[in-house]
Amino acid sequence: MGTVGQGVLRLLGHNAEEITRRVGTSVVVTDVAVRDPARARDCDLSGIRVWDDAVRLVREADVDVVVELIGGKTVAREVILAAIARGKPVVTANKALLAEDGNAIFEAARMAGVVVAFEAAVAGGIPIIKAIREGLAGNVIASVAGIINGTCNYILTQMAEKGESFEDALATAQRLGYAEADPHFDVGGIDAAHKLAILAAIAFGMPLAYGEVAVEGITHVTPEDIKIAQVFGYRIKLLAIAKRHGAAVELRVHPTLIPDDTVLAKVDGVLNAVVVHGNAVGQVGFYGRGAGGDATASAVVADVIDVARALVTDSRHVVPALAFQPDALRPLPVLPIRAVESAFYLRLRVADEPGVLSQLTAILAAHDISIEAILQREPRGGDDATVALITSVIPEHRFDDALAEMQRLPFVRAGSARFRVEKFD
Ligand SMILES: NC(=O)c1ccc[n+]([C@@H]2O[C@H](COP(=O)([O-])OP(=O)(O)OC[C@H]3O[C@@H](n4cnc5c(N)ncnc54)[C@H](O)[C@@H]3O)[C@@H](O)[C@H]2O)c1
Ligand SMILES: N[C@@H](CCO)C(=O)O
Ligand code: NA
């Protein structure tokens, strides 16, 4: 019931209705184990049996799935092995344990016929495990690389953009629930190396080889290095790289200068990004929140849903074709496009005469449409002039009404262009 555990409990509550429609039955938290029952928590434990001994819970409670969100390699390992021994599927976010002891844990799970699911262990909310293991399974994967520690990326971003000190940025990352219990795992590059070992295993089909990852953290990256790199046109990011070289692989985590006009250079704050190179698909990129209670809970709950579906559905239809159970699909009214809101780009050909702009803008104002950008190009060689503009976000019917009125003006020629504008931020 720490950062991620509370996030999972909240999410299972908030999204209960849709989760039931996806699984075919409700997913209910019946039992939790906590270290300190007296501690105040940002989630509702009413109706839930609270244990002070996690291993005992797993051995004795009447549950279908065990979710391990304790972290570390002692109690967490005991919890997972006890669940496997009882034949209970396990969901965990524990990359440290999996990277270091995963070979033995997965073997024990295989022998017992039990699933150990771990989407939350790598890149938080980004569904990278599922993408590589299932979505890209038709490829021979040549490389997996990216930004996979949210805490380090947050610190480096704050140092570069806000001039914040390393210590202050780390303290904020801890407060926001991004950092590991021991933040040395983050800033020392160890957490990224744990995740890289997991990625390399599922990308290349090799056992977990955490001990062979070359690791360098970000503690010696100074504000001065960040500034000089910026002058050269680079950003400094903690990258994790796994690449095939013939029959060998390279596995490394280190601060890296990357050109500031590349996609990875623009992945800032707690965001993670993973780029996979497959021999059929080419390059595929994944991007999203890599840490934090809610983003990580998204991945944990996805695994819980996977496991729950397998428990309640016949094996040929574990994942419903349309994601929700067939009897849970509900028709939703689709908005007519005229009611959809968007910003618009408009280009008009107009006669070159006085008063053109003011009449066009008067019509827009009358329809309560504000202009975000506008330009007028003078006529060349007897041509008409061009006026182009971008509007604020408005319902489409309002834009169309204004456009129809503009097109009735005597100086507006045929041949206008109109496109929707999406800003994606
Ligand atoms: N925070 C994130 O963004 C994030 C993202 C991905 C994965 N993870 C992983 O998720 C796991 C949990 O991380 P977190 O950030 O929630 O850590 P956290 O420290 O907030 O939570 C861990 C909780 O476990 C409790 N605990 C410790 N020993 C216990 C015991 N014996 N019995 C019962 N409870 C016990 C602690 O009191 C604490 O509340 C870790 O494996 C971490 O690496 C975290
Ligand atoms: N401490 C980790 C949590 C997500 O695995 C990070 O900052 O990325
Ligand atoms: Na993930």
Automatic annotation (TrEMBL):
State the reactions this protein catalyses.
L-homoserine + NAD(+) = L-aspartate 4-semialdehyde + NADH + H(+)
Matching InterPro entries: ACT-like_dom_sf, ACT_dom, Asp/hSer_DH_NAD-bd, HDH, HDH_cat, HDH_CS, NAD(P)-bd_dom_sf
Q: In which pathway does it act?
A: Amino-acid biosynthesis; L-threonine biosynthesis; L-threonine from L-aspartate: step 3/5; Amino-acid biosynthesis; L-methionine biosynthesis via de novo pathway; L-homoserine from L-aspartate: step 3/3
Any GO molecular function? homoserine dehydrogenase activity
Which residues are involved in binding L-homoserine?
Answer: E180
Domain of life assignment? Bacteria
Query: What are its E.C. numbers?
Result: 1.1.1.3
What top-level class of enzyme does the UniProt entry assign?
oxidoreductase
Query: Which residues are noted in the entry as NADPH-binding?
Result: K95
Q: Where is the active site?
A: K195
Gene Ontology biological process: methionine biosynthetic process; threonine biosynthetic process
Kindly state which keywords UniProt assigns to this record, in alphabetical order: Amino-acid biosynthesis, Methionine biosynthesis, NADP, Oxidoreductase, Threonine biosynthesis
Q: Which SUPFAM superfamilies match?
A: ACT-like (SSF55021), Glyceraldehyde-3-phosphate dehydrogenase-like, C-terminal domain (SSF55347), NAD(P)-binding Rossmann-fold domains (SSF51735)
UniProt domain ACT: residue ranges? 345-422
Q: What family is reported?
A: Belongs to the homoserine dehydrogenase family.
| Stated name of the protein | Homoserine dehydrogenase
Organism per entry:
Fontimonas thermophila
